[in-house]
Amino acid sequence: MERINNKGINRKMRLILLSFTIAVVGFGLWFSGTNIYKFAKGYFAYKTQSSNIEVKATTQPRKEETEEALYPSLPKMGEEIGELYIPKLNATLPIYHGTNEDELEKGVGHFAESVLPGENDNSVLSGHRDTVFRKLGEVGEGDVLIVRTSAGEFTYKVNKVRIVDEDDRTVIVPKPRATLTVSTCYPFNYIGSAPERYILVAYLTSKTVS
Known about the structure:
Blueprint: H1 2-59, H2 63-66, E1 80-86, E2 91-97, H3 101-106, E3 108-110, E4 122-126, E5 144-149, E6 152-165, E7 179-186, E8 196-209
């Protein structure tokens, strides 16, 4: 009788263990399936987003590729690159690349380490106060400066007049916008090597590209 009872108990235990095992396996399968689905969904979304980003990156040209250069090549030292027209003085002055005495004797010199007229940043022009810029002191804030080159016509409006020491290098520093800086010795009637510089700082207001 006791042996029969033991068999019944063992059978119940086996059923309980089997049921528990089935439940654990079932839960494991459900849990794994749920996570695999989430992973697959997330991975698909990630790949789709990455593909969209790659497509945009390849179809949208970079900024530097969309902006055409005004000048295909740099001019040679001493080469005439254009002219500076000053309506206030009714004067048209030739511009040469370089600011050595050879260029300044012929006209207005373009500081070779600055950008060319019309380009973004600071384009610096210099001239002698007793030749091309004899009357530059009559030009001030609000007046217009027009530069014509092979790239087109560029109109600047004088925003500021500065008087600086001859050793002041701030006049040639880079600018965040298209700027024309015109420099000559000062005072205009000074005898000998003038100790200061008369500076016109003008911003580009319009341009007509050739």
